UniProtKB/TrEMBL annotation:
This is Caspase family p20 domain-containing protein. PROSITE patterns: CASPASE_P20. GO terms for molecular function: cysteine-type endopeptidase activity. It comes from Streptomyces davaonensis (strain DSM 101723 / JCM 4913 / KCC S-0913 / 768). GO terms for biological process: proteolysis. PANTHER family: MUCOSA ASSOCIATED LYMPHOID TISSUE LYMPHOMA TRANSLOCATION PROTEIN 1/PARACASPASE, MUCOSA-ASSOCIATED LYMPHOID TISSUE LYMPHOMA TRANSLOCATION PROTEIN 1. InterPro entries: Caspase-like_dom_sf, Caspase-related_regulators, Pept_C14_caspase, Pept_C14_p20. Residues 2-83 form the Caspase family p20 domain.
Amino acid sequence: MTRRTVVVSGTDAYDHELPPLPRAAPDMDTVAEVFRTLGYEDGDRLHNPTADGLRRGLADWARRADRSEDVVVLYYTGHGERDDKGHFLMCRDSESGQLRSSAVESERIVEILAENGLTRILLILDTCYAGQGAVDALRALAGSLASPAVDAGR
């Protein structure tokens, strides 16, 4: 049976130099409510996660049930940054000068969901440089979907 689920995550308080974003939690609630009115179930709500907490939280949620037929909306709000290699979601413990080791690449969150069988994903990024994040995530999802097709053709 196909389920429609909304997963919201966001960061409004940071351990390091990033300024707080007081609208993050209310925006998470608003987005979840909008999708509930459209018939979506509540998935996880990850508020102020660490980078590792965001990755693990999404993976744990995705593994809890067979979600291969599900439609998932994933909303993230918080600071976003980029470098010459891609877009990063800034989590509670992220540092601007240490993106690769302390933040979460936008493409990685889509890969985590795809690794757990999810392929119908609407990613909404409410961050700076979200356009770059969307391109990175789409590229990652396309790669995840192409790999099984290539393997099946062998």
